[in-house]
Amino acid sequence: MVIAVTQLNNVYALDAVDGSIIWQRNVGPPVPGDHLFCSLFDFMGILGTPIVDLNSRALFLNAMTTPDGGAHKKHYILSLNVDTGQINPGWPVDVEATATL
């Protein structure tokens, strides 16, 4: 399996032998580049490299998303089941949320 992600917040699990799509998921609308203070991109979605924890079968990634076309922006850390693409329980985590102890 090969995992591929895009700036449009699409995540793909691809068959490493023939390239066919095993599963795909969109994790939310990306933030339009013109709604950011500084961006060289048309959209800001998933830019980093995802990480897989094979023991827990979890894929971890970060994504910028906007529920309303750019007025509000959210930076999330997500965990997806590497076998199904479903969001794991307890995720996403809002990077900018404040913790209460």
Name the poorly predicted regions: none
Q: Estimate the helix proportion, in percent.
A: under 10%
**Tally of DSSP helical segments:** 0
Strand order, sheet with most strands: 6-7-8-9
Question: Kindly, what is the distance between the CA atoms of the first and last residues, rounded to a whole number of angstroms?
Answer: 40 Å
Main pleated sheet: 4 strands, antiparallel
> What is the global morphology?
globular
SSE ordering? EEEEEEEEE
Rg over CA atoms, rounded to whole Å, is 14 Å
Number of strands: 9
> Which structural class is indicated by helix and strand composition?
mainly beta
- Average pLDDT across residues? 91
Percent strand = 35-45%
Topology:
Blueprint: E1 2-5, E2 10-14, E3 21-26, E4 31-32, E5 43-44, E6 51-53, E7 58-65, E8 74-81, E9 93-94
Antiparallel strand pairs: 1-2, 2-3, 4-5, 6-7, 7-8, 8-9
